[in-house]
Design goal:
The complex is a heterodimer of chains A (194) and B (254). Chain A is mainly alpha-helical. In chain A, 76% of the residues lie in helices and 0% in strands. About 11% of the residues of chain A have low confidence. Chain B has 254 residues and is mostly helical. Helix content of chain B is 71%, strand content 2%. Classes of the chains: A mainly alpha (194), B mainly alpha (254).
C-alpha cells in the first residue's frame, strides 16, 4: 500500500494529476475523521481536508520518500486543523465570551442524530455525547490535537511530537493535560453509579 | 509502596509506560491504583463514544471535484506550443542578443566597473546579518514579554504565539542561509531559538502562573535570552564594520 503511495507521489510530482487523484481517494476518509475530531464540525472538517490536499500537492517536492505518505499527510491536516481551530477560537473570543449554551449551539457534534434504539437510551447517549463534545471543545487546540493523534489515531508520543513540531516531552505533556481535563469533566458521567 | 502517578497510568493505558510489567504488577497488588486506572479507562471509553459522521460513499470523489480545478499546474513549460511560436520566440531572442551585443560595443563604458553586490561573497553575509539582527530583536521581545509576565496571574499569550509562529516560519530561511554561508554559530542559535518558539506557538493560549514559571525556568536554564543578546550584539558589531568595510573597498576600487 505504502509502495503504491510512493509511486503515486512520484507520478504526481511529474504532473500526473490522476496519480494525485488516487492519493486523494485513498486518504480522504481517514483525513476527514481526523479533521472532524479536531474541529468538531463537519463543514470545517471538509474544508480542512480540501486545504490539506492542496497544501500537500504544493509541497510534494518536500515529501521524503522514506517516510509514510499517510503520516506526512496527517501532519499537514493536523496543522490545517490547528490553524482553523486557533483562528476560530480567536474569532469567538472577539465576538462573545464562551458559554455552555453558546457551545451547544455552535458545535454540531452535540446535535448529531442518535443511533440508540429506544428514547430513554437515546436521551442518555445524547447527553453523554453532548458532554464529551463540550469537554473536547474545552481543550486548547494543541491539547486537542495531541489527544486526537494519540487516542484516536494511535500515534506514539514521538509521532505526535513530530506532527506538532515539538519535543516528545512537550507532546506527552499536552496529552496528559488533555486527559486530566477530560477526566475532570467526564468522570461524573463515566462512574458506574451513574 | 509508591503509587503510580496519573502520568504513569496514562502512559500505561496507551502502552507507552517504560516498564509495563512493573506497572501491571503494581496494578495487580494495589487497589488504589487499580481503581484510578479503572476510572481512567471508563473516562477514555466514554470519549470513544463520540461519533464521527459518515461523509458519504462518494466523499473522496467529491473532494477531488472540489480541489481538481484549484491544483496549481506543474511543468507548465512543457505544454506543447505551435512551432511558429518557437520560431517567433527564437527570432526575438536572437534579436535581443544582437541588440545587447551592439549596445555593449557602442555604449560609453565607465573607466572601472562598480563592485557587483551579487558577486560579492560578503554581500550575502551582510544581508543575512541585517535580517538576523532584526529577527533576533523581535524574538527577544516575545521571550521578554513572557519572561516578565506577572508571576501570580494567568496570561493570555495568543499574541505572543502568533508572533512566535511567524518567527518560526521566517527562521527556516535564515537558518538555511546561515548554513549555506558557513555561519554555523548563527545557525545553531537559530535552531535553539526555533525550538523554544515552536513550543510557545504550540502551548495553550492561556498559561497559568505555574506554566509561566516553568517557561521562565526553561529560558533561564537554556540561557536563550542571554545567547540572543550576545548574538544580537555580535551581529550588530559585524554588521557595522562589514558595511563600512564594503564601502571602503568600493571606494578603493573607484
Amino acid at each position: 500500500m505504502e509502495l503504491n503511495d510512493v509511486l503515486a507521489v512520484n507520478k504526481a510530482r511529474s504532473g500526473d494529476t490522476d496519480a494525485f487523484r488516487v492519493l486523494v481517494e485513498r486518504h480522504s476518509r481517514s483525513l476527514f475523521r481526523l479533521a472532524f475530531r479536531m474541529t468538531g464540525n463537519q463543514q470545517d472538517a471538509e474544508d480542512v481536508v480540501q486545504e490539506s490536499f492542496l497544501r500537500a500537492y504544493k509541497q510534494l517536492a518536500k515529501f521524503d520518500e522514506r517516510a509514510s505518505f499517510g503520516t506526512w499527510l496527517y501532519r499537514i491536516a493536523a496543522n490545517c486543523s490547528l490553524d482553523l481551530v486557533r483562528s476560530r477560537k480567536r474569532r469567538n473570543e472577539h465576538l462573545a465570551p464562551p458559554s455552555e449554551s453558546a457551545a451547544e449551539v455552535e458545535d454540531p457534534v452535540v446535535s448529531l442524530p442518535s443511533t440508540a434504539p429506544n428514547p430513554e437510551r437515546m436521551a442518555l447517549s445524547s447527553e453523554v455525547r453532548e458532554r464529551v463534545a463540550l469537554a473536547m471543545r474545552d481543550l486548547s487546540p494543541t491539547e486537542r490535537t495531541a489527544f486526537v493523534l494519540r487516542h484516536f489515531e494511535g500515534m506514539c508520543m514521538e509521532e505526535v511530537g513530530r506532527v506538532l513540531e515539538c519535543q516528545p516531552g512537550a507532546a506527552k505533556h499536552s496529552v496528559f493535560r488533555a486527559v486530566q481535563k477530560l477526566r475532570r469533566a467526564l468522570e461524573p458521567i463515566a462512574s458506574p453509579a451513574k | 509502596m509508591n503509587h503510580l502517578t496519573e502520568e504513569q497510568l496514562i502512559l500505561h493505558y496507551y502502552g507507552e509506560e517504560g516498564d509495563a510489567l512493573a506497572a501491571e504488577q503494581h496494578l495487580d497488588e494495589c487497589n488504589t491504583c487499580r481503581d484510578h486506572f479503572t476510572s481512567l479507562q471508563r473516562v477514555l471509553n466514554v470519549v470513544d463514544s463520540l461519533p464521527v459522521p459518515d461523509p458519504g460513499a462518494e466523499y473522496a470523489t467529491r473532494v477531488w471535484s472540489q480541489i481538481e480545478g484549484r491544483l496549481p499546474s506543474r511543468r507548465r513549460f512543457l505544454v506543447p506550443v505551435f512551432p511558429w511560436r518557437w520560431l517567433a520566440a527564437g527570432a526575438a531572442f536572437a534579436g535581443l542578443l544582437v541588440a545587447a551585443f551592439l549596445a555593449g560595443r557602442f555604449y560609453p563604458q565607465p573607466r572601472k566597473p562598480q563592485t557587483m553586490a551579487s558577486a560579492d561573497p560578503q554581500h550575502g553575509e551582510r544581508v543575512l546579518l541585517v535580517a538576523v539582527g532584526d529577527y533576533l530583536e523581535r524574538s527577544q521581545m516575545v521571550l521578554i514579554e513572557l519572561a516578565n509576565a506577572h508571576p501570580h496571574k494567568e496570561m493570555d499569550i495568543t499574541s505572543q504565539q502568533e508572533r512566535a509562529g511567524d518567527l518560526v516560519s521566517e527562521s527556516r530561511l535564515y537558518r538555511q542561509t546561515a548554513e549555506h554561508t558557513g555561519n554555523h554559530a548563527v545557525a545553531g542559535i537559530l535552531e535553539e531559538l526555533d525550538r523554544v518558539l515552536l513550543d510557545i506557538a504550540h502551548a495553550p493560549s492561556k498559561l497559568s502562573p505555574g506554566e509561566l514559571e516553568t517557561l521562565r525556568q526553561r529560558l533561564e536554564a537554556e540561557g536563550i535570552l542571554f545567547k540572543i543578546r550576545v548574538m544580537g550584539s555580535n551581529v550588530r558589531s559585524q554588521e557595522e564594520p562589514a558595511g563600512a568595510g564594503g564601502t571602503s573597498t568600493a571606494r578603493q576600487k573607484l
